Amino acid sequence: MRFSSMKKLFVAALVTLGMAAHAADTIKVGVLHSLSGTMAISETTLKDTVLMLIDEQNKKGGVLGKKLEPVVVDPASNWPLFAEKMRGLLTKDKVDVTFGCWTSVSRKSVLPVVEELNGILFYPVQYEGEESSKNVFYTGAAPNQQAIPAVDYLMNEVGVKRWVLAGTDYVYPRTTNKILKAYLKAKGVKDEDIMVNYTPFGHSDWQSIVSKIKKFGSAGKKTAVVSTINGDANVPFYKELGNQGIKAEDIPVVAFSVGEEELSGLDTKPLVGHLAAWNYFQSAESDINKEFIAKWKAYKKDKKKVTNDPMEATYIGFSMWVKAVEKAGTTKPDAVQKAMIGISVPNLTGGTATMMPNHHLTKPVLIGEIQEDGQFETVWQTKGTVVGDAWSDYLEGSKDLISDWRAPLNCGAYNVKTHKCQGQNYK
Amino acid sequence: MRTAIKLLLLTLLFNIFLQAGNFESAIKDLTASSYSKKQKVIEQLSREYSDNKNLSTLLQAMLNGKLYYTKMDKKFVIVRKKEGGKLHTVELFNPESKSVNPKSLYKKVKTNNRLRSIIRTKLAELNLFSPDKKRRLKSVENMLEHLDKESGALINKALKSEKDSKVLAKLNEANLILKAKHGDEKEKLLAVKKMGAYLSPQTLQTLKEIESSTKDAKLKSAAKKSIGSIEDSKWFYSIIEKLFFGLSLGSILLLAAIGLAITFGVMKVINMAHGELMMIGAYTTYTLQQLLPNLMEYSVIIAIPLAFIVSGMVGIIIERLVIRHLYGRPLETLLATFGISLILQQLVRSIYSPLNQEVKTPEWMSGALEINSALSLTYNRLYIVLFAILVFAAVLLLLKKTSLGLKVRAVTQNREMAQAMGIKTGWIDAMTFGIGSGIAGVAGVALSQLTNVGPNLGQAYIVDSFMVVVFGGVGNLWGTLIGALTLGEINKFIEPVSGAVLAKVIILIFIILFIQKRPRGLFPQKGRDAQE
Q: Which residue of A198, A209, A232 is in closest CB contact with B356?
């Protein structure tokens, strides 16, 4: 009896020892995506994507001969909690890299923490720009990689003359629309041909707004709606468009927040023919994409699972990080940050993504029409890739700024007129 | 002689064959993936085969996304039905040849916006003489949107044979526009004068062009006059439209608030789970559609009594288990029902997933009733207005004309006296709460047609419903009706000016100020009972 409990103790000691040894041999990867609350719908997918990628990398033998170990935390769609969890990841768990955040406000909340503790964050969602941090790599689209090309497409290919900028009332649509309005005006569009409209989150009574759009669109000039409407408010919006007889051929709606994942739970009939601008569609025809989709479906054990743009951004970010760590030979933040710039990896649409000195990517821009099966049919795409611009060229104050994290500049917001570095955050 | 006839027949037959063969070979290229190639094919087809009956079938199928072809031998088929992984198809040129095959054997002829717009124009030209009235109307409306000089002959031809007044009006409008654009001086002036009676955007646009470009003073003043009269009637219709929007929003508020008017207004129970009872009604609709996929068209109607029963039962359970013990303690009731609302939300999340569920809209509820070019009312809103009125009438009848209603009123006015008269007050409490909850469920059915069905559905409406009941006057059903409609109208008249976000703020401030002035709402309860 006594002997056996001794044995137990011994085994326990051994196990602890083994774990300690094991822990030293792994590289910790933080995953900071909401698994509960309003954003859980979108962010859970990205958590699973990171876990799948880690799994796969470990099968290949890990990185630098070490296995990757995911540390998953749940910030619960609570913005201040994001910062707390990030601090925990960096100080307690001592992660070497973090993949996380979706909304801009969660990123802004995490930003001071990553900068203070010199961590590395990969942010995989399209956002409003006007930011460049030494510690953040933006693998989603900046406005000039999504909004501006979409407007160009409508202007040049469809011949749109009148513009409705409709959005949900928060920072991403407000900033994007500000940039778009400045851009349209620079292209000679008059004030009376632009209509801006904001609605609250989860707006459901669209009748008077749609009726207003209809009237705005019946002035004889081709009209389009540029939509930064977020989340589930889109469903009643498109329904109302259909009910009031507005067809995609008459007034097309190009959306920046409607992807395959959002469409998978919808009655797509009223949406067919409307447009979306992204840097990736599941329907992209490339071998690497087919392989990725197959792997994803197998990982989720669900044949109906779809892939989307932020997943591709996560994929690109992860492969870049692996490559940078291998290039630097270490996971030390400063070395990896330096190695990241200039790294190129294949993207899922058949091209390559390169990390630029401003911590943004080169991306192709695709415009797709929504199909009945909830997929997109690419109708237009940029010839090559577009370099992400941290500071918009169309906004007063931000057009003189550039970002370059290489020596000797090493600055997130460098004013080319005054030759001063304004720090990482302008304003 | 006989050989000659034979020969003739043979050539005839051959000709027919040849023609069919040509048509079939002409459409072969529709299997191409390039949209510009498909566009060329369609343009060629409508040039050369406009008499071929198959063309309209082909284009219609393509427009609806029903045109597929077999991967093996590139034969075109039209899909009638999709079932599981199988497609029910008929051959394009042979409607009798039905077959059912796995989906993977077929490929869809895809279309994009530009292609669909071209097909629609071509179809319009083909359908102008269709025996179907609706098709002709659609076709003229489409032509109106893409008028060019060449359409003139077609329209004149159609004008001679057309009998239907609606189609005729549209044709006349198109004719006038063409005359105003391309006619001689006299025709132009006459057309411009007449155009003031039409409302379509194309007419207005043509007039504006003429007004700004012409040098003829007479024509200019005529155009100006016509524009004025069009804008006047447009303004009139836009007011009617706003009234309807307000009415429709008001009726939704009414539906959401009637149940609360009973539980809060009559029973004085602050039920924070009211929104979740609506959510249960919406989920009942969803579940019904999942269980009976073949009855999609009637699912909404079947869901109404079902949702009433389901939500009503849930309400009775809540009353018996929790609220019964808390009568007369409003703060505790508020907290307890708030807890219940969270439990119900989580329950739905666990059973159905946190994602929104897709509730289908039946065919008869989509689309709009077009009164004229300036005014069209969407069917789903129309039905909901009617439905709200019906529900309101039913509740009023129930409370005023039935013995149950009499007992409910008796119990809420003086519990002890009612008890002394032999009324089982406990049972009446449960029934009243059940009815209020059931009506919330019915409101949920209506909401499922307008908004997203998800766990948060109830929260979006709970504040609005309390607002309506407080504004209208607690305990007064008529107050609820007037309150809901007033708030709806105010909202819709402010919204175009202030935007949706500010409109909500303004309404809230308005109600706060109003309550300061009249703390008991629009129609306060009178009598001894009201003093409590």
A: A232
Task: Give A36's pLDDT tier (boundaries 50, 70, 90).
Answer: confident
- Burial zone of A137 (CB within 10 Å; 0-12 exposed, 13-18 middle, 19+ buried): buried
Each residue of B360-381: pLDDT tens digit?
Answer: 888 888 888 888 877 888 898 9
Q: Do A265 and B355 touch (CB under 8 A)?
A: yes
What totals of helices (H) and strands (E) does chain B contain, helices first? Answer: 20, 7
Closest CA of chain A from B120, distance in Å: 10
Which of A344-358, B40-54, B218-232 has the largest mean confidence? A344-358
Structure tokens at B443: 């409101």
- All residues of chain A having their beta carbon less than 8 Å from the beta carbon of residue B201 are 218-220
Domain boundaries, chain A: 2-140+292-361, 144-283+367-387
3-state secondary structure of A388: coil
Give the closest-approach CA distance of A131 to chain B in angstroms: 28
CATH of A144-283+367-387, one of 3.30.450.200, 3.40.50.2300, 2.70.98.90, 3.30.420.40: 3.40.50.2300
Tell me, what's the pLDDT at B174? 85
Which residues in A lie closer than 8 A to residue B358 (C-beta atoms)? 265-267
- Chosen for mutation from B38, B66, B108, B113 (greatest number of chain A CBs closer than 10 Å) is B113
A231 at interface of B, judged by CB pairs closer than 8 A: no
Same fold, A2-140+292-361 and A144-283+367-387: yes
Weakest-pLDDT range from A5-9, A112-116, B260-264, B489-493: A5-9
Q: What span, in angstroms and rounded, lies between the C-alpha atoms of A73 and A30?
A: 8
Task: Report pLDDT for B15.
Answer: 54
Q: Is A160 helix (H, G, I), strand (E, B) or coil?
A: coil
Q: Does B498 touch chain A (CB under 8 A)?
A: no
Which domains can be identified in chain B, with CATH numbers? 128-214 (no CATH), 237-359+386-531 (1.10.3470)
Rounded to the nearest angstrom, the minimum Cα separation between A157 and chain B is: 10
Q: What is the DSSP string of A41-54?
A: HHHHHHHHHHHHHH
The correct answer on CATH 3.90.190.10 for the domain covering A2-140+292-361 is no
Dump pLDDT digits (tens) for A301-354.
988 889 999 999 999 999 999 999 999 999 999 999 999 999 999 999 999 999
Query: Residue A237 corresponds to which tokens in the numbers above?
Result: 């919006």
How does strand A194-199 pair with strand A162-168? parallel
Q: Which residues from A are below 8 Å from B450, CB to CB?
A: 204-205, 236, 239
Tokens of B187: 């025709």
Tell me if residue B98 falls in helix, strand or coil: strand
B249 contact residues in A (CB cutoff 8 A): 205, 207
Strand bridging mode A121-123 / A67-73: unpaired
B441-469: per-residue pLDDT in tens? 999 999 998 888 888 888 888 888 899 98
Place of tokens 């509740």: B395
Both tokens of residue A398?
Answer: 């931000």
Q: Where are the alpha helices (DSSP H) in B421-499?
A: 425-448, 457-472, 477-498
By the CB < 8 Å criterion, does A303 face chain B? no
Residue B114 neighbours by CB under 8 Å, 6+ apart: A249, B35, B39
The reported pLDDT for the residue numbered B528 is 57
**Dist. CA B483–CA B493, nearest whole Å:** 15
Mark yes or no for CB contact A204/B460 under 8 Å. yes
**A161-170 burial: b if 16+ Cβ within 10 Å, else e:** bbbbbbbbbb
Residue B431 or residue B134, greater confidence: B431
**What are the Cα distances from residue B135, in Å, to B139, B148, B235, B378?**
6, 20, 30, 20
Cβ A88 vs Cβ A19: under 8 Å: no
Q: What pLDDT was estimated at residue A21?
A: 43
